[in-house]
Amino acid sequence: MGTLIELRNLSKVYERGRQKVEVLHHIDLDIAEGDFLAMMGPSGSGKTTLLNLIGGLDSPSGGSIAVAGQRLDQLGAGALARWRAAHVGFVFQFYNLMPMLSAQRNVELPLLLTRLNGAQRRKNAGIALQLVGLGDRAAHKPGELSGGQQQRVAIARAIVSDPALLVCDEPTGDLDRQSAEDVLGLLRTLNREHGKTIVMVTHDPKAAEYANHTLHLDKGTLVEQATA
Asked: Distance between CA atoms of 176 and 33, rounded to whole angstroms?
């Protein structure tokens, strides 16, 4: 497996009035294609900022970031949005499902940005729901599903366009332990059996155990990279 993500001298600075706050300090990091990486660290350490940069949700203040050879730091907003839609699936702590839409329709949403017709969108959404074990819940709305099921719908939505990269921000932070383990087991399956590269932010050491590697950030600096 080659390197999928390359960060070189990556920095991020936010301006708050006249004050400049450097959130990430000169990060160098390679993430291999097909890896499952957990990022841990105290609140304010820069984990989510780094995740957002890797997923193309934000742009760095300095340095470079390349994913599959594409320099994200050189893309404008429109090109970056198109790149995200084609290459990245997002899973967040709160599922961000549309409450009035069925699971099937929620999963279809990213496909509205593609040229697929309605029948193909429905087929692909159904396959994604089957993959996360919810083929029999396709007609249910979010309010009719448990928290763990809603997160699995969110994961189906993230993978429906078959992205190479999944970025997950506290994906089990709002779940009970059993539901969390179900979701983490699903992510591990997507990594091991379907070749998805996964970068996950978590505060939970048990969640990090599902990853292949754990990266630690503290005050915007990479302080440790350990092999699980």
From this structure: 31
Q: Is the pLDDT confidence value at 29 over 70?
A: yes
Distance CA 16, CA 24 (A): 15
Average pLDDT, the chain: 88
Name the percent of the chain in helix, strand, coil, to the closest 5: 40, 30, 30
Residue 136 tokens read as 């029999």
Q: What is the pLDDT of residue 101?
A: 92
Closest by CA to 137, choosing from 169, 174, 107, 178, is 107
- Beta pairing partners, 66: 6, 71
Amino acid, res. 45:
S
φ, ψ for residue 12, nearest 5 deg: -140, 125
If you search the block for the tokens 């841990």, which residue do you land on?
A: 40
Q: Which pTM was predicted?
A: 0.89
Calculate what percentage of the chain has a pLDDT beyond 70: 97
Angle at 76 between CA 196 and CA 5, to 5 degrees: 30
